[in-house]
UniProtKB/TrEMBL annotation:
Superkingdom of source: Eukaryota
CDD domains attached to this UniProt entry: GST_C_Delta_Epsilon, GST_N_Delta_Epsilon
Oligomer status and interactors: Homodimer.
Domain spans labelled GST N-terminal: 1-80
EC number: 2.5.1.18
PANTHER family documented for this protein: GLUTATHIONE S TRANSFERASE D10, ISOFORM A-RELATED
BP terms from Gene Ontology: glutathione metabolic process
Protein name: glutathione transferase
Matches recorded under Pfam families: GST_C (PF00043), GST_N (PF02798)
Length: 212
């Protein structure tokens, strides 16, 4: 399976974590977005939406990281524990995946991307929205070890890729003890180093571009 990716990208990191959880070996292909490699005709032929991660499984091209996670478990999981088939259990996983994409990660992007990529000033209101999103996760995690059930699921993999990105940019989790505790649990997931390595690379690359 070819995985077009960048180590620092949060959605790519969730797919790498899923590969570790399932014992899959990806043929890793880095795609330099800054150099516009994703806009070259040969990549557009694979993914007209030109985003990473993009996975090619025996000629079948997939993108949208959370959909990739679900596919990998359904196709290669020994059981359904990472993405339960039971409708209510699956609902909680999907709910958290959509929350991660539309709220938690989106609010990180809304705060940082204009500053990083358009030299806009920081918007304190957007920071409050990030805090609110982490607050939602904190409430969801009350009394729980994992984000969407009694065991690790792909919701945790997606969420930890995002939360570790917040962490890389020094988000203060002290007011969100349930998130802090869950985050420590996630750091013990086998293969977690692949995510940390990517966060470190992301911070090294983009941290210096942040105005003080
Ligand atoms: N919702 C998508 C987001 C993917 C995404 O935005 N990837 C970025 C890198 S982190 C990218 O490929 N940007 C280049 C582009 O979209 O042209 C997912 O979760 O896979």
């Amino acid at each position: 399976m070819d995985l077009y990716y960048l180590p620092g990208s949060a959605p790519c990191r969730s797919v790498l974590l899923c590969g570790k959880a399932l014992g899959l070996d990806f043929n890793l292909k880095t795609l330099d977005l800054m150099a516009g490699e994703h806009l070259k005709p040969e990549f557009l032929k694979i993914n007209y939406q030109h985003c990473i991660p993009t996975l090619v499984d025996n000629g079948f091209a997939l993108w949208e990281s959370r959909a990739i996670l679900a596919y990998l478990v359904e196709k290669y999981g020994k059981d359904d524990s990472l993405y339960p088939k039971d409708p209510q259990k699956r609902y909680f996983v999907n709910q958290k995946l959509y929350f991660d994409m539309g709220t938690l990660y989106q609010r990180f992007a809304d705060y940082y991307y204009p500053v990083l990529f358009a030299k806009a000033p920081y918007n304190p209101e957007a920071y409050k929205k990030m805090e609110e999103a982490v607050g939602f996760l904190n409430t969801a995690l009350e009394g729980k070890t994992y984000a969407a059930g009694d065991n690790l699921t792909i919701a945790d993999l997606a969420l930890v890729a995002t939360i570790s990105t917040y962490d890389g940019f020094k988000f203060d989790f002290s007011k969100y003890p349930n998130v802090a505790k869950w985050y420590e649990t996630c750091k013990k997931i086998p293969g977690y180093e692949v995510n940390q390595k990517g966060v470190d690379e992301f911070v090294e690359k983009f941290g210096p571009l942040l105005p003080k």
